[in-house]
Specification:
The protein is of the alpha/beta class and 266 residues long. 35% of the residues lie in helices and 23% in strands. It contains ten helices and ten strands. The chain is globular, with a radius of gyration of 19 Å.
């Protein structure tokens, strides 16, 4: 049972506003080990804003965030990857002039622990760590089937390939929690099927819990353990995919009226 699993991250009573505009209103969520938790809602509902709060890119005006029982509400963004919190971006943020391999190596920064001196002269521990980091990146390249684009600069990759590199970079820091912001947006059907397969393998084989913000309801309902629905910054539903798609509040949020659900499909 998902409910019996350990809580990895918990957000309590999150309130976020931009000036006078409320974006998130008193939202509380729990993320449990080994699960795929989907966060869905209409455009502008606050899904990405919630992900930004969890990853530290936004600081909520009120509320608390706990990770493995430790409060990290005020922890700076750059320190969260060192805890094992990794994410992808809705708007892909790659180093355009670097190759796929180099972008993945950049994602290893949070697990590079050798000293400045050994790193500068590339000896001893620094050399051994470099070999280990290269091996980890090569494993990710094999896993995501990126061999054909490994030496291609990010600027010359297709949109779907760039999304794959973004996912690979998130994996490169050995995450214990993975936050995915619309990883399939703008992809064709074949690319979506590939990414879906990778997400399932990350979750089941690597046992990494995943928070997934995604608009493709078919994918969400097929692969998620739990679903949270946000509308106008308010959590309106939480449960299994089957429970969620039958919830009258969810139907109304997506279709405008629960009365037309009989002739429509969420």
């Amino acid at each position: 049972m998902i409910e019996s699993r350990k809580v990895i991250m918990e957000a309590r009573n999150i309130n976020l506003s931009f000036g006078a505009l409320p974006v998130l209103k008193n939202i509380s969520i729990e993320i449990r080990e080994k699960e795929i938790l989907a966060i869905i809602g209409p455009n502008g509902a606050g899904k990405t804003s919630l992900l930004n709060v969890l990853s530290g890119f936004y600081r909520a005006q009120t509320g608390e965030i706990f990770y493995n029982g430790k409060e990290i509400t005020s922890l700076p963004t750059y320190k969260r990857p060192y805890l094992g919190i990794s994410r992808t971006f809705q708007n892909i943020e790659l180093y355009e002039g670097l190759t796929s391999v180099e972008n993945l190596m950049a994602g290893r920064h949070s697990v590079m622990t050798h000293g400045i001196l050994s790193g500068a002269f590339y000896f001893g521990r620094a050399r051994r760590m470099e070999i280990a980091h290269r091996k980890a990146v090569e494993d990710i390249i094999d896993f995501l089937e990126m061999e054909s684009i490994r030496d291609t600069p990010a600027a010359f990759l297709t949109y779907g390939q760039r999304k794959k590199v973004d996912l690979g970079r998130a994996l490169a820091c050995n995450p214990k929690l993975l936050l995915l912001d619309e990883p399939m947006a703008g992809m064709n059907q074949d690319e979506k099927e590939d990414i879906t397969r990778f997400i399932l393998d990350i979750n089941t084989v690597w046992e990494i819990p995943i928070v997934l913000v995604e608009h493709d309801m078919g994918v969400v309902m097929d692969i998620s353990d739990r679903v949270i629905v946000i509308n106008f910054g308010v959590k309106i539903a939480e449960g299994t995919p089957e429970e969620t798609k039958k919830n009258p509040k969810v139907i109304e949020a997506y279709l405008g009226s629960a009365d037309i659900y009989k002739s429509s499909k969420l």
